[in-house]
């Protein structure tokens, strides 16, 4: 048991717990018994709050644990996270502004709300809602993977259900203050989380390399390690087989990130178009920190850091690489701060993700199919209860399922959420696609993507199915025809599935238009996409 680290960690964790409960009175509106107030913070967050909130949502504990762990294990491939977060913001700059505007006018809370308003189809909206919920669940579970890595490094986590008790306590506390304060809790805590992360990374990137002979020596040690492995795709440089996969994974991840429900939740909570524009300009500052953080995977190689062996599976848990690096090379008190930064970094996105999933359930399932005339207070209560279910469902993933399976599920989630891009993002600019085309595209893209993922094996870890998202082109087939022969060049499955989705959507749309099939009703008009913070909108009403 690392007592100094544990005490520092506990003090900082207690601080954010108090902040979580106090947040209920921070920038308080007329009532929290309304989804606009509980689930979107009253839609009035300014530039600084939005910057910390969205940054805390996108750059999660798992990001800060898994990216350097991937660099440690696979080398340059793990660096895809940097170009992906660089190209992300120019791509989403204008679509997010348009989404905010139309959502302000119509009171939309979720991307499925927008789809229903755009196409007048509750079935298409239901597909978008279910996709968002299913893709978000393992994402929340992965925050627990990051938190558990820290707990293991402090000696707090063992095997069996009782070994997960500290994790369970942490999430009970998270559930309670999120239930009370809604989105205001992670928004306020994000200030502490991000400040701690910046301090830890800036110290680590200066202090640790100086201990191991500088960056030149660190890169030499990393290359020597990769040269000694039988795997041909690792190394400090990309190879001929993984360059395409690297590029398509970065592009696919960039296209997917802001159509995740939790990403849009942070955007819709801001008070104006200018706030979003400023944030798209300023958020790449996190990418700089992420790039520095990724290099800690190479530092761990040079330091001789060994991952902790998972008692349940008997395999080394590479997610513990960064906590172990910090624990063995920082003074105990500063290692405690670093562990707290990662641990708190799990709570902020987990809270936002659970709120986003709860909003989808409430607005697009409960109110649409169970209780159409639910009052604002009933909606808010249903969302609070749903957020609890989602959180403890994520805990169940960790307790009863191999955490590695949760990681694989998150890869699947990324492929899934990409299939909502035509209905959510492209629909912001054109209504050319027919609703039948979008539904058919979703079905074929989702089905083909899952089939491809199912057939990806990794003998190194003993998995025959769902062992990653990198697909050799030689395994792409169309009715038995292999257009790329036996090529070993890899590509990201999500991009392939999205291409199939769009192709089917275009074909079905052309057929439907030729047959003059009714395409639903559109509740938006061009002016809805250009409103600002002074324009009228659907406002919260007092709870019954």
Automatic annotation (TrEMBL):
Ranges annotated as spanning the membrane: 6-24, 45-65, 71-97, 123-141, 161-179, 191-210, 246-269, 281-301, 333-362, 383-401, 407-428, 435-454, 491-512
Topology relative to the membrane? Multi-pass membrane protein
Q: Name one GO molecular function term.
A: transmembrane transporter activity
The cellular location(s) given in this protein's UniProt record come to: Membrane
Q: Which GO cellular component does the record give, naming just one? A: plasma membrane
UniProt KW keywords: Membrane, Transmembrane, Transmembrane helix, Transport
PROSITE patterns in UniProt:
NA_SOLUT_SYMP_3
Q: What is its main location?
A: membrane
The family annotation for this protein states:
Belongs to the sodium:solute symporter (SSF) (TC 2.A.21) family.
The identity of this protein, by name, is Sodium:solute symporter
Q: Which organism is it from?
A: Lentzea aerocolonigenes (Lechevalieria aerocolonigenes)
